[in-house]
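Handoff note, outgoing to incoming analyst
You'll be picking up this chain. Sequence as last confirmed:
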Amino acid sequence: MIIGVPKEIKAEEYRVGLTPSGARELSIKGHTVLVEADAGARIGLNSESYEQAGATIVKTRDAIYAESELVVKVKEPQLEECQLLDPGQSIFTYLHLAACPEISSALIDAEVCGIAYETVTDTEGGLPLLAPMSEVAGRMSIQAAAHFLEITQGGSGVLLAGVPGVAPGKVLILGGGVVGRNAAQIAVGMGAEVVIIDRTAATMRSLEEYFGNRVTTLYSSRDEIEKQLANADVVIGAVLVPGASAPKLVTRDMLGLMRPGSVIVDVAVDQGGCFETSKPTTHDEPVYAVDGILHYCVANMPGAVPRTSTFALTSATLPFVIKLADAGIEESLRNDSNLRRGLNVYKGQVTHKAVAAALGREFVEPLQALT
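Most recent structure output, in case you need it:
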């Protein structure tokens, strides 16, 4: 199979969909790997390292798309990239289609096979290709929040760790999944007071077993969220519904409960965000204020640490890329139910139920579409 790895063009995005090590694994198996020139240059993966691994360096993005059977990326294709895709071509990347109706329509119209990292599952129902970036984003969320709490950044001037004689800052985390757990790990390490709100008893039990009395877990309700917002210095949005738009847990009116200069970090913004006032930002301009509350809503947070993120992501995605290449796209999807759950669009059809609901499109069962 011919596998193409283009350079990411989304603003401030330096991750790459395949490392030289991955290219070597595919080349050994007889596959052709095409890598756009300088695709990984900003993170120390130069074109020569890919060539030494058996890949072919291609000078233009257009040529990558024109020659590849399977395109492997990191972020959702931008509209100009969607125009380069041909019917029947396959793309394997984060898609986040529920929050991107324009890109969704472009991929549907292009009649491609779109497999989304974020909805591929494992045998236990987990999301193995989303987890590495959720771990990075969760840890970064506290780092970002601590920075923007500084008075010079527009924050309230609170030190999360506190000092002897002065109480630490309070971090409220909405959602106790992978993002929430990793955010809590860093916040606890800093010495902050940490509250995690979730709606699943098993999740809360697991968190308490892991953190002991270093965190407080509470069952999610509107009343509880409002109560906790009133004295939170930082609120982390870490709620995920696979493939669907994130639920809006905090309305604009609820911001009035928070102290001015407090910081919101919406890790779910690439799925529409779980705050009513969220809108995507970039690493160049990461924050904005609404009613005196700072919002950090960078849609590709792990892109700020692209070297770490690339190696974490590709170690998880490579086995799936190899499977798709070895057995063929359709055969792999038919035979692997976990991989098939990653199929979001196929030849003009929407094949993920949550994505179809979010976009107002007809849902077609993946196996039906594949036959």
